[in-house]
């Protein structure tokens, strides 16, 4: 502190000051003149637009334009995909991460490897990505590109190493999650439906394994055809033909029946004991006709989930 005071004293004594306290300086003629004050000094501005850059410091709220959603019920992690290729990972307080696919393609579907810290994303550029979530910054471990077919649906059974991928051509491919390569086992659409049927069933819109037997794969086609395929015998157990397009399918937890949502706003329930016709047909949003006729068609039901609950008396 003493050294600092000596420096200040040296500065004040080196510059002449008049009686009023204003610093003085000598002119060319030798007469002292008043020194310019800080307000009179013009500072040359050296900052240009290149010195500034906009960057995000915080993300708030639900992701913009969400297209896919997945949840890990064990680790309590929520994954949200967006139309611009963004991936948002949300968990317990403090767990919030954002990642971006380099291609920028929309995320069509998300599949968690339950309780394994991994996630599979299917994008609109027909590429599958395997993400590693067991690190501070999630990263892509493997990628698999479909060149000849467009991906429409994916299904990964619980604790299974096989990922089922449906395509626009109606075929179902099987991917090994560990090596992330195609297994070579392909369920062709013309083998899944009856050979006598010449019309194409449309893209695969649903894939799921039977709750009672993981060796049975349920395949739903857009045209309204549903096939249960035996992965061991490589044959169809049964085929269902309905005259309304299918949007989604959901199993009952016992594995004895399943429900389909259709383009005319109807829900059909099918029992495995008799697959010749639906066990029940309801129009939850349609107006009931007084004469008992079929209710008027309404907007399609895009998603159905078969849930059960215990009634508390």
TrEMBL record:
The keyword Transmembrane helix does not apply. It comes from the Eukaryota. SUPFAM superfamilies: WD40 repeat-like. Keywords: Exocytosis. GO terms for molecular function: GTPase activator activity; myosin II binding; syntaxin binding. GO terms for cellular component: plasma membrane; SNARE complex. GO terms for biological process: exocytosis; Golgi to plasma membrane transport. Belongs to the WD repeat L(2)GL family. This is Syntaxin binding protein 5L. It comes from Scleropages formosus. The gene is STXBP5L.
């Amino acid at each position: 502190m003493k050294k600092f005071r000596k420096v200040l004293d040296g500065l004040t004594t080196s510059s002449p000051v008049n009686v009023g306290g204003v610093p003085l300086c000598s002119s060319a003629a030798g007469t002292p003149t008043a020194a310019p004050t800080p307000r009179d000094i013009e500072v040359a501005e050296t900052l240009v637009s290149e010195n500034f850059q906009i960057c995000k410091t915080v993300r708030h709220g639900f992701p913009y334009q969400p297209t896919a959603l997945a949840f890990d019920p064990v680790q309590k992690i929520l994954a949200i995909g967006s139309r611009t290729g963004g991936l948002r990972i949300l968990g317990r307080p403090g767990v919030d991460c954002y990642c971006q696919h380099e291609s920028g393609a929309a995320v069509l579907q998300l599949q968690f490897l339950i309780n394994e810290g991994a996630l599979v994303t299917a994008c609109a550029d027909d590429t599958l990505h395997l993400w590693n979530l067991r690190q501070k910054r999630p990263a892509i471990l493997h990628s698999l590109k479909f060149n000849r077919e467009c991906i429409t649906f994916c299904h990964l059974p619980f604790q299974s190493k096989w990922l089922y991928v449906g395509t626009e051509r109606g075929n179902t491919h099987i991917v090994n999650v560990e090596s992330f390569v195609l297994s070579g086992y392909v369920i062709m659409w013309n083998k899944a439906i009856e050979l006598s049927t010449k019309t194409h069933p449309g893209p695969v819109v649903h894939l799921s394994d039977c709750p009672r037997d993981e060796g049975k794969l349920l395949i739903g086609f857009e045209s309204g055809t549903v096939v249960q395929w035996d992965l061991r015998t490589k044959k169809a157990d049964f085929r269902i033909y309905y005259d309304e397009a299918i949007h989604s399918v959901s199993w009952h937890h016992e594995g004895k029946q399943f429900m389909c949502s259709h383009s005319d706003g109807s829900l059909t329930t099918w029992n495995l004991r008799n697959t010749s016709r639906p066990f029940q047909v309801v129009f939850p949003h349609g107006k009931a006709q007084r004469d008992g006729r079929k209710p008027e068609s309404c907007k399609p039901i895009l998603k159905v989930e078969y849930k059960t609950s215990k009634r508390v008396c």
